[in-house]
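Troubleshooting entry. Yesterday's outputs looked truncated, so today I'm pasting the complete records for two proteins to confirm everything comes through intact. If either block looks cut off, that's the bug. Protein one:
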Amino acid sequence: SGLFWIRRNAVKKMLSNKRSGSMDQFVASIITFLFEATLLVFIVNTFAISNYRDNIDQIARAEILKLETTGELNRDTVVEDFNNRGFKLTSTDIIINSGTAGKVDYGNPVSILVEYDAQSTDIGTIGSRILGGTHHIKIYRESISKAR
């Protein structure tokens, strides 16, 4: 029974003995995890916004190509093209040829400006349903008219 008592005390002492610095390691691990999670969310959101902006830029490039080959472009048609592809723009968000109307002759500059505030929920960023928010998108394209 004496040997049992010594073993029991040794096991009790071993179980109740804490390593020094274990709380410090735990806090450091939690802070590192939070930092890594925040960094991951930032990277994913930055990629989503960049991808969204690139998609708008591709549509604007296609529209400027139409504009430079025909010499004119209907703003309502451009807005409809954007909306058909899932972007929520209005006619006030698009400026064609710096706001001048009419047909552009060969060799004259042509431009399209798309500028609006996109909702985070439309972009699909992480946490957008909870945090909300908007992102200012501005795309400007210009070329020279080749219409004859």
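Protein two, checking that the full record survives here as well:
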Amino acid sequence: MKSYETFSTTADSGVRCRGGDYGQLYANALRGLNLLLFGANRRPGRSAERVPFRFRGDGPESVLVNLLSEALYWVNQRGKRVAAARVLSAGRNGVEAELLLAPLRRRPRCEVKAVTYHRLRVEERAGGFRAAVVLDT
């Protein structure tokens, strides 16, 4: 598996991601979401708007769901794309990052209604972490 990829289920879609640490795992999950929504991961321009994101939860699963839900909020409610996340600190129970926002130049390729906890589990393996997040599409 690459650092991130998308997959399909019977009725939904998802993102598989991995990272050497929690910060890489969370950033790669966002890249996977962008791949599903836009078909590519275009870099934000130099004038990208930066917004802080902090979340503290009860485990890496809740961090993943909340980070990806925040990215969906920007797409669906604010008309902007979270092009990248500059992770400042990350751990098992939280993340502090700067989200880099870019204009939404085209509509998403598919509608993602929600990020789910369905069968979500972050696994620690030799060399890092892996997760698969199911998205309600």
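Both blocks look complete. Sanity check on protein two: The CA atoms of residues 88 and 110 lie 30 Å apart.
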